[in-house]
Amino acid sequence: MERGLDAGLGERPAAVRDALAASRFLTSAADAPAVVVPIHDAFDDTLACLESVARKTTSPFRLVLINDGSRDPRLSALLAALREVAGLIPVDRADNRGFVRTVNEGFALAPASDVVILNSDTLVTAGWLERLCAAATRRANVATVTPLTNNGTICSVPLSLEDNALPADYDVDRFAALIAECSLGLAPEAPTGVGFCMLITRRALDAVGGFDADAFGDGYGEENDFCQRAIRAGFVNLIADDTFVYHKGRASFGARAAELLTRNLATLAARHPDYHADVARFCAAHPLRLFHDYLARSIAAGRERRATIRARVLHLLHEGGGTEKHARELAALDDPGVLSYVLMSDGRALAVDELHAGRRLRSLWFPLPTPIGPCGPLHDAGYRDALTAVCRALSIDLVHVHHLMHHTLDVARLGLPYVMTLHDYYAVCPRYTLLDPEGGPCGACTGRGPRDSPDTCMKALGQPDGYLDEHQEAMGAFLRGAARLFAPNVCVQDIVGARFPDAANTMTVIEHGYHATAIGARRRPAVITGNGRRALHVAILGALDVHKGSGVLRDLLRANLRGETTFHFYGTAPDAALTTGPYDRVRRLDGSRFVYHGPYAAGEIVGRLAADGIHVGLQLAVWPETFSYTLSELAEAGIPVIAGNLGAQGERVRRCRLGWTVDDIRDPAATLAILDGILRDPATLDGVARAMRRDLALPPMEAMWRRYLDAYDEILTPGRSAMERTPETSPEETPSPRYVASLAMGLAEVASREAALRRQLEESQAEADALRSRLRSPRHRIAEALGNALQRVPVLWPLLARLTEAVLRRPEHRAGPGA
């Protein structure tokens, strides 16, 4: 018989037979779920279906094949050849009894087990049966479980209610893997299952009975009728949102499909008058909306298209600054096997962005039970629980710590490997700039100053005397527990090593990568203009806080006596004198010519510097920086720099010949001497500019990515993460990790909307206050103006009455005698 099958039908049917015979999961056990495949013609589709079942089913099952009067004789020959396969029940019927009667016969052939109806025009995928069975056990009253598919109405993906082609560049298995990765484990209730692939529990079959063959004998509508009857009997129908089964659609019915569909839907509506309304409500509620949105973004990012995710890396940091910029650039690494998460804490919640190849896929929000301050506590049970929930929900493999502000040290207690990049000196001192409260250098924390001096610094942070020792002891243990330590510059090794020699010995220097677009030759503006006048334009970039040199700039402006020099500031500063006045216009500040250009986007600053004719850049930071992105921006622009001879700014300027260093950047005389020298002899500026090693100063982003990836791969061993997903359970019981992730996604949406509404309310309140001030109107007109402003914030309507009432209660201003 085998020789006849091989000779008469070719190699593929024989291969299907051999694959089924070789399956160690195909069994004769009566309690194993039975996969019932009704067959009517569609020989090639049937072969593909059976081959997928043989190769992709990895849990015990029985297989019932019923040939319902096919006209293609090859199907009878195929079933005859499969009779000797253990665990397989072939039924070859010469007469056509219809789809529904065929399925009922399959139910009868598996009287003691759950049954999966599987159309012969489907392709199952890895883990499909295990996931369907797991969903069926989530609750005691499950009647049916239907997987997602490309063509299955309410179960369709990526577009619901559509007959979808597979997304471009995805095959069935890749797309199924993506579905499994993106699943939120919701398994929502639905008014009906979809019969292309539907698990029916034995409990429901025994309670409700089989399909109604008299009403739906040829197919279409029979599963909807069954599901509605099951609901009335107290059962539920679930959608397995972690499982994908490909469905070609209507392969057996051919041209009769439309006729059957119209007739049987009318029968269904007559039997269950609320059915269509129930479906409409389900579609309107769209319980899988978050999943569909997440899936769409994942497809757009090419997730799982080229490679399976091999590592999930959580980047842990605070909000803002160069640390966030670096972490997001690292999370944008172009490796299809890495899924990155950027977790930022503001002390009240852990906000997480999931990224793949730099594209954000979803946001999650995990509130903290108790607030975490900027520098403590060192440990907190509530924070540890929240971080554990994050890592379990996202199956994190590795944590990359970038900063611990508004965090605790509990990441070391998760049982996960962690690495750390030291972006500043928080490990040495919670005043991470190594400056005292007055902004002067403090060497106590590094052992280079008196040991009694740090108490003043700690008190300024709200910490008790002696806290520095406690902090350093805890940080020393944290650094020793890290799988790897990284620093963006050798100066970090030197300074941290003064307090933690072991850490310095194991630290690897990886400079921050940079997306440079303008390293080529630059046309430099002339210092001597066409009419013989001299003009020198000097730029200061970035967020100019005190430690970044805001006070140094003000001293420089006061000390400058040269009218030919104009200082240009691009960025932000808490010193209002630096940021007031119109943008891009020269004004006098502290006696010097000064232009404030406002904040800038990183991608535009090189062009703006060129357009404004900048000759020299200043790096005015008074603390030993660990990198300095603004120095990189000036280097990309080809603008020589004056910096203090300390930290990364001094080391990079010297090593890469980017300009000049001065011993004390706080001393304006040293900086002004260099600027005056350029005005006297502009050729010196040209010589320095030509000598700049911009290629050395701006290592490509790809080089940074590769070095970090190599470190990740060395640390991570193949296999599951240390934070394995727990089995899916009911949300009413212990929430599963995927369910926790879905809740966090919902909270992120709420938090985003709340922030937007607060901004709208503030804008509306400001507008109302402005109207009140300008009009000085009677109180009822003030209330009317406030109401009109707030009407643009419809969600805040409940506040309208209270705010208006508050205005009306205010005493009306009356002019006094002296007015």
Which helices and strands, and how do they pair?
Layout: H1 2-9, H2 11-22, E1 34-39, H3 43-56, E2 62-68, H4 73-81, E3 88-93, H5 99-109, E4 115-118, E5 122-123, H6 128-136, E6 142-148, H7 172-182, E7 189-190, E8 197-200, H8 202-208, H9 213-216, H10 222-232, E9 236-244, E10 246-247, H11 257-271, H12 275-285, H13 289-300, E11 311-318, H14 321-331, E12 338-345, E13 349-356, E14 359-367, H15 381-393, E15 398-401, E16 418-421, H16 454-460, H17 467-481, E17 484-487, H18 490-499, H19 501-506, E18 507-509, E19 536-543, H20 550-559, E20 565-572, H21 576-579, E21 586-589, E22 592-596, H22 605-611, E23 616-619, H23 629-636, E24 641-644, H24 647-655, E25 659-662, H25 668-680, H26 683-691, H27 694-697, H28 701-715, H29 737-775, H30 779-790, H31 797-809
Parallel strand pairs: 1-2, 1-4, 2-3, 6-9, 11-12, 11-15, 15-16, 16-17, 17-18, 19-20, 19-23, 20-22, 23-24, 24-25
Antiparallel strand pairs: 4-8, 5-10, 6-8, 7-9, 12-13, 13-14, 21-22
